[in-house]
Design brief:
- The chain has one domain.
- The chain is 70% helix and 0% strand.
- Helix 1 crosses helix 2.
- The longest helix has 31 residues.
Length: 77
Amino acid sequence: METIQVVLETDLRIAADKAARRFRKNRSQLVREALREYLLRLETRAREERDHKGYAKNPSVRAEAQVWESEAAWPEL
Protein backbone atom coordinates (compact mmCIF):
# COMPACT_ATOMS: atom_id res chain seq x y z
CA MET A 1 0.00 0.00 0.00
CA GLU A 2 0.96 3.58 -0.50
CA THR A 3 0.14 6.65 1.53
CA ILE A 4 -1.36 9.55 -0.41
CA GLN A 5 -2.95 12.85 0.45
CA VAL A 6 -6.52 13.61 -0.52
CA VAL A 7 -8.13 16.99 -0.03
CA LEU A 8 -11.76 16.86 1.14
CA GLU A 9 -14.27 19.54 1.95
CA THR A 10 -14.86 19.72 5.69
CA ASP A 11 -18.44 18.46 5.49
CA LEU A 12 -17.38 15.48 3.37
CA ARG A 13 -14.58 14.61 5.81
CA ILE A 14 -16.99 14.83 8.75
CA ALA A 15 -19.53 12.61 6.96
CA ALA A 16 -16.78 10.11 6.10
CA ASP A 17 -15.59 10.02 9.71
CA LYS A 18 -19.15 9.44 10.96
CA ALA A 19 -19.67 6.63 8.45
CA ALA A 20 -16.34 5.07 9.36
CA ARG A 21 -17.25 5.06 13.04
CA ARG A 22 -20.71 3.71 12.32
CA PHE A 23 -19.35 0.79 10.32
CA ARG A 24 -16.31 0.30 12.57
CA LYS A 25 -13.75 1.11 9.92
CA ASN A 26 -11.03 3.67 9.76
CA ARG A 27 -11.21 6.52 7.28
CA SER A 28 -8.70 4.88 4.94
CA GLN A 29 -10.71 1.65 4.78
CA LEU A 30 -13.86 3.59 4.04
CA VAL A 31 -12.21 5.61 1.25
CA ARG A 32 -10.62 2.49 -0.30
CA GLU A 33 -13.94 0.65 -0.37
CA ALA A 34 -15.77 3.67 -1.77
CA LEU A 35 -13.16 4.15 -4.48
CA ARG A 36 -13.27 0.46 -5.45
CA GLU A 37 -17.07 0.58 -5.74
CA TYR A 38 -16.94 3.79 -7.76
CA LEU A 39 -14.36 2.39 -10.18
CA LEU A 40 -16.45 -0.75 -10.60
CA ARG A 41 -19.52 1.38 -11.40
CA LEU A 42 -17.51 3.35 -13.95
CA GLU A 43 -16.36 0.14 -15.65
CA THR A 44 -19.90 -1.25 -15.65
CA ARG A 45 -21.23 1.98 -17.15
CA ALA A 46 -18.54 1.89 -19.85
CA ARG A 47 -19.47 -1.73 -20.75
CA GLU A 48 -23.16 -0.82 -20.86
CA GLU A 49 -22.42 2.12 -23.17
CA ARG A 50 -20.36 -0.14 -25.48
CA ASP A 51 -23.21 -2.67 -25.55
CA HIS A 52 -25.77 0.03 -26.21
CA LYS A 53 -23.74 1.42 -29.12
CA GLY A 54 -23.20 -2.08 -30.51
CA TYR A 55 -26.90 -2.95 -30.38
CA ALA A 56 -27.78 0.44 -31.86
CA LYS A 57 -25.50 -0.30 -34.85
CA ASN A 58 -26.79 -3.87 -35.26
CA PRO A 59 -30.27 -4.15 -33.77
CA SER A 60 -31.60 -7.67 -33.34
CA VAL A 61 -34.49 -8.78 -35.48
CA ARG A 62 -37.58 -10.44 -34.14
CA ALA A 63 -36.82 -13.70 -35.98
CA GLU A 64 -33.61 -14.12 -33.95
CA ALA A 65 -35.53 -14.05 -30.69
CA GLN A 66 -38.20 -16.43 -31.98
CA VAL A 67 -35.58 -19.12 -32.60
CA TRP A 68 -34.53 -19.03 -28.96
CA GLU A 69 -38.12 -18.76 -27.75
CA SER A 70 -38.85 -22.16 -29.25
CA GLU A 71 -35.88 -23.60 -27.34
CA ALA A 72 -36.98 -22.25 -23.96
CA ALA A 73 -38.23 -24.83 -21.50
CA TRP A 74 -41.04 -23.12 -19.62
CA PRO A 75 -42.41 -24.90 -16.56
CA GLU A 76 -45.98 -26.04 -16.69
CA LEU A 77 -48.29 -24.49 -14.12
